[in-house]
Amino acid sequence: MSSQQIPETNLPVEQDAAHGAVEAAADPFADPGLPAHRPRIQDIDERAARRSERAVAFMFTLSMLATIGFIASYVIFPVDKIVYIWPLGHVSALNFSLGMTLGLALFLIGTGAVHWARTLMSDVEVADDRHAIEAEPEVKAKVMADFAAGAKESAIGRRKLIRNTMFGALALVPLSGVVLLRDLGPLPEKKLRSTLWAKGKQLVNMNTMEPLRPEDIVVGSLTFAMPEGLEEDAHDFQTQIAKAALMIIRIEPDNIKDKREREWAHEGIVAFSKICTHVGCPISLYEQQTHHVLCPCHQSTFDLSDGARVIFGPAGHALPQLRIGVNSEGNLEALGDFEEPVGPAFWERG
Ligand code: FES
């Protein structure tokens, strides 16, 4: 084979390889350098290069057509048009065509670019030596001289009182951070585990501030309640309501799937904690057909007809249920406190 010139480097292949081989033979630990560049067919045959060029242009052209198809699909297909496509079955014509055309347009740009890079762009490997990280001796000397001059000007060596108190202050500052570590535990379990709910506490409507009666709760409605005696202007109102807030809904008793939920309800009226078990947002979006409630923060969804178990989202466990009944005045009342801690799911971490 004759010595071949590589267009990008002008290095003769055999000469470069032979040079490395001679060096390696002389010193087995010598840097072998980069392997000799092997020209591709497109580097030496202009017709092959043109073929690759046409292939890349073909993919980019198809991508343009796919984008035009995307715009056309958007204009042509109505939102509710359903078509049968094997093996997918019945799908929305609009969604299917938008997805296919956009996917194709992006895919073809990608494959065109990859083919271009692999066949036509230069593939010669190059190496660039790293620079030393260390500063030059003159720079180091200047920094040290500046530092010494600054220390002298501040008179830190002479004014020992300032120097010593400054070191003391700097040494103590990190202690603030260490003290804050106390908040990592142990947890104030009792405070977090108990709420204002207790046997005999009436459920008060948070909008009207009136005690709730079973007839106030109709199927399909969502009512928020808090314990009687909790005043909105109390100094710890936010702390208490953050643990005690309730969601009250009514479900046909036969539609309650969970046995304990049915037993803890009163004529289909169920009371669950309103505090999401993910990171504690108040839950408020109720879908009466499915009995699902959705937390607006990260979309955790709970099935209130099945023990408020999590059916979607990051929440770690079901919403705690409050056992309720009716007192002698016909008002809804709690039959005790929650049996599980309300709020975020860290309780389940061993
Ligand atoms: S706080 Fe409810 S899903 Fe995150």
Automatic annotation (TrEMBL):
CDD domains in alphabetical order: Rieske
Subcellular location: Cell membrane
Database matches in Pfam families: QcrA_N (PF19297), Rieske (PF00355)
SUPFAM superfamilies linked: ISP domain
Superkingdom classification of source: Bacteria
Presence of the UniProt keyword Ligase in the record: no
InterPro entries: QcrA_N, Rieske_2Fe-2S, Rieske_2Fe-2S_sf, Rieske_Fe-S_prot
Membrane topology: Multi-pass membrane protein
Main location: membrane
Positions of transmembrane segments: 55-76, 96-117, 161-181
Keyword entries, A-Z: 2Fe-2S, Cell membrane, Disulfide bond, Electron transport, Iron, Iron-sulfur, Membrane, Metal-binding, Oxidoreductase, Respiratory chain, Transmembrane, Transmembrane helix, Transport
Annotated Rieske domain residues: 269-333
Function of the molecule: Iron-sulfur subunit of the cytochrome bc1 complex, an essential component of the respiratory electron transport chain required for ATP synthesis. The bc1 complex catalyzes the oxidation of menaquinol and the reduction of cytochrome c in the respiratory chain. The bc1 complex operates through a Q-cycle mechanism that couples electron transfer to generation of the proton gradient that drives ATP synthesis.
PANTHER family, alphabetized: CYTOCHROME B-C1 COMPLEX SUBUNIT RIESKE, MITOCHONDRIAL
Family of this protein: Belongs to the Rieske iron-sulfur protein family.
Protein known as: Cytochrome bc1 complex Rieske iron-sulfur subunit
Source organism per UniProt: Streptomyces clavifer
Lineage: Bacteria, Bacillati, Actinomycetota, Actinomycetes, Kitasatosporales
